[in-house]
Structure formats: structure tokens, C-alpha cells
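During the reporting period the student researcher (J.K.) took over the structure-prediction task from the postdoctoral fellow and processed the backlog of single-chain submissions. One of the processed entries is reproduced below for the supervisory committee.
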Amino acid sequence: MTKLELLSPARNRQTAIAAIDCGADAVYIGYKAFGARAAACNSLNDIRQVVDYAHPFGVKVYVTMNTILFDDELQQARTCLEELSSIGVDAVIIQDMAYLKLNDSSVLLHASTQMNSFTKEKVRFLYQSGIKRVVLARELSLEQIRRIHDYCPQVEIECFVHGALCCGISGECYLSLYRTNRSGNRGECAQSCRTSYTLVNSEGRVLQKDRYLLSTRDLDASVYLGGMIEAGVSSFKIEGRLKDENYVRNVTAHYNRLLNEYIASHRGYERASCGRTDIRFEPDVERSFNRGFTTFYLGGRKERTGNIFSTKSMGKHVGEVLESEGRTLKLKTRERFACGDGLVFLNGKGELEGLMVNGVNGNVIELNKAVRIPVGTALYRNRDTDFEKALAKGAGARKLEVDMFLGKGKLRVRDMRGNEVEVETGDGLSLARNVEDYEKKLGEQLGKTGDTIFALRNFSYTDDRRYFFTISGLNALRRRALELLYDKIKADYRVEKQPKVDFDVPYVDSSVDYRANVSNMLSEKFYSDKGVKVREYALEKEMKNGEKELMRSRNCIRYNLGQCLKKDRVSKEYSGELFLLDNSYRYRLEFDCSNCLMSVFSCD
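J.K. obtained the following C-alpha cells:
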């Protein structure tokens, strides 16, 4: 059976537990240092608590240590690996090749998307170097993913399926570093792709002024989930380690349902973890933070991937304006609204403008300010107060289902994976006088599993005679049995260790430049041991003058503006070279149309 894993983000311990309760098969969380989201750090004790909660369900816990390292950080990184190994985390997600030499504790290593696994040769090299799982670049199509899987079928393939997209290819974006001296490869990205730019041509003519020309929509690969499975993806990753619990609950529940539906209609697949998940709300990813959705490049170049008008959340389309007068809006809608809801629309300047609902009377809404909106304007809700309240109340529960068998004074309990324990009552048995609904009443009492992780699926009474049991006696039997079963499940859990690394595997290139992000002596030695020349160190270590490629991207400005050199009739003013301007710098754009990629270069 092929195991399918839903991998959810966790900003902290509470969010990790919320994700598990809503159906995650694994969670990824940051430790105290070296994570690509510096604002999402957690203590060792908090991660230990996540591990303790996750493992009885077979849910795995991955820790992000996917920044590049400097020499004075190598020992700390080694210590972090040892600490995380000691509490039983299932894997550490890395970018820096130095970890392959630091890993004395043999914790399993996964290759982060920051490693820019864009080609089948790179993926096979990583696998042969001891990396069991590779998080592929987000810019790949289904066909490219399939070719990678066919070329190296042994490697586990993890792909992003939902959430915010980097504009640049992960691990090779230096725009933030160049503009602000804050590096994404060091966990400090300033999100320079989310700021506004002015687009000019070689003659200096302004083509687009103060637009969010590099900002992408958010990924929603729901429609391609089956295609991703068939292409060889086994782990489906939700972006969002800075998102709150409600976001993680909603998106996790959505993909949990989709995976279950796929498995129900296709043989040969099962979930990577176990346990029954009860979702107490109707998942709807449009009701959580989103900048509008895109499938990006999964199906090839089929849609505009950017939103040049705003980087704010658009939320869900809720209707059109019928009347607008002062603070009152009348809408054509099927949605129900509540005070505190947030609404947005595109105003006459092409900008996203926000409103708040102060009162509701059917489809007539009172706003927090006077506004004049043209009839027919589309309205979106980016804050749904009723939905958020439903999520916050406790939106999911995770239970391990068990079967119980009672007979001859013994209670036998077996879980869904075949783990089994048996306990015996110490009381003498006497025949029951009242046998009305005998088995039903026993099952109901033994089924009161309370706040344990267990839930009764089936109960069977296996004795020929019907004996009398006190309520306290049944409770004691159940409690002892479930405690033994819990201990057995925890004791039987095995954490996979990193295989021996073969450093003799040749690298895919004979030399590397700054895009290999070599920033310490161990990562340099990793390459030199393979006969690979390090021509340039990471830009974080030495930013030299001269033109540099700061970003490559599938989020092509020309395509988004209807000025694609391959498919559109290009306007005269867009026919030559194009440049981006911000308050401080000028950037040259270059278009590799054969590979459908755009590059952003510094103009030093």
C-alpha cells in the first residue's frame, strides 16, 4: 500500500495539536534557531510535547532547520540535531549541505525546497547522498514531477499543495538580501516581492506605476491532488508556519477530506497515520486568508499567477453590489453576514479597499464608513466572524478506535493497527440478576473513554454466562486496559534513522557559484570532496558589486500583463527591455521564454 501524507504547518505547540486533530499525518515546526521562519521558534520542551501527542496516532513531527549556516554556528547546529534526536523527532528539514557532515546523531534528514530541487539529476544526487525525502521546487509541472519520480522512484517526493508562494525559486532568491540586507536563506525574508514597483521600458516610459508586480496569488492545488498522487507525490505540504490555528484547522480539514475521498475511490493507497478525525465545521479554504488562488505551474502555463493590485487577503467572493448609498450596501448574495465581517472590493484606482460590517438586515448591510461603489462591483469577504468563531470553539477531534472484548472476567482491547492488551478483574464474579439490554449497557459503560485518545468502535461480550459488574469495576478495567494500550503504542513507535551517507557520489556540476549558497567550511568541503570547485560563496557571506541574478520566477510579469512574447500581440512600448524601479534601485528583467522563466537582475 502506498501511504499518503498530509503535512501541516505549526507555528507553535497549540497549532500543531490543532493540525493533528483536523487530520494531519505529519506536522513541521521550527526549533530555537536555523528555521526559515525566524519568527516561528519553539522550545525543546514544546516540541517534545508535540512528539508525545503525535506519535500514538502515527503522526510524524519534522523540524525545520533550513537556513544556511556560518562557521561560528556549526557547533550549535550539531547540538540542535542531538537535542532533537533525543526527543524522537522524525526528521529535520535542511538546506545547508553541512548537515550531512554534522549529523552525528543520525536523525533523518529531508531536503528543503530551499535546496532548489528542480531537476531529476539533482534529486537523484540528493537521494544517493543519503536524503530519503526531497521537497521539490514549487515551480514544477505535473509532467516534470512525474519525470523526476520515474528517474528516481526510491526517493520520497514532497510537494506544496496550498498556501503562499514565493515569487522566486526558493533558495535562489536574493532580492530581500539585496534591498534590505535581510536574507530569506537566513530566515529573515523581508518579502520584497510583496512590495510595489514601477515598470518602465528602455526609454524610461512608465508602463505600470506602483503596482505589486512580483506578488503571487496563493497556491490551491485541490483540483490537481489526484494528478499529483499519480505523478508520484506522497507528501502534500501546506504552507503557513506563521499562520494562526484557525487557518491551519480549516486548510488541514479541507485536504484531509480530499485525500480520504481519493483513497476511497482508488485501490492501493492509505493514509500515513491513523485515527478517526471528527471535523465539526464545513471546511472552506476561501474563507481563510488568501490573495486569490492559482494552481501556479502544475498544469503548465494556463493562468495569470499574480495579483498586481494588492497583497492583502481577498477572501471569498460573496456577491455583487445592487445599491450603494452612504453607509448602506444592498447585495446580490446567498451569503449570511455578521457584525465584524471584513469586506473588500477593487475601487476605481484598481486598488483593494476594505470595509467593515456594522449591521445586517438580510442582504442589506450597514458599513463602518460611507462609500460609493458602482452597481455590479464584485464584493469579497476577507474576515468571516461566524466561521472564525466556529473554528475557535474546537473544530476537530482525533481518536484511535478500539474494539473491546469482555469475557471470563477479562477485558481485551485491540486498536486499528492490531496492538492488543488484556486485563483481568480482581473481583469475584457472580451472576447478574438483571440481564435486560445486558451487552448494550456494558458497551455503553466501557465506551466512556473520556479525555483519552481512544474511542470505542465495537464491543463484544464473549462469555456464555452473564456476570454482574459494578460501574466502578468496569471503569477500572477500561482505565487499566487503555493505559496499557497507550504505553504499548508509545513503546512500539520507531523513529527511522539517517542511512549512512555516501560522499563519493559525484555532483551534477563541476563547479558552483553563489546560488549553491556555500557559507561555511563544511558545506565547502562537501563540494570539494566531490571535486567540485566553489567559484563564489553565498551572497550572505560576501555581496560583490556587479550585475547579479537576484531571482528567477514562474510568476512572469509579461504573462500577467498580457504581454507574453510567445502568445500575445505585444504592445510597442513592451517590445524592448523592461526594468523595475523601487525607491532605491533599478532592476533589469530578462525572459527565458523557452523555459517559461523570468529573471530579475541587479543593475549595479
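The committee noted the following: The chain has a mean pLDDT of 94.
J.K. will present the remaining backlog at the next meeting.
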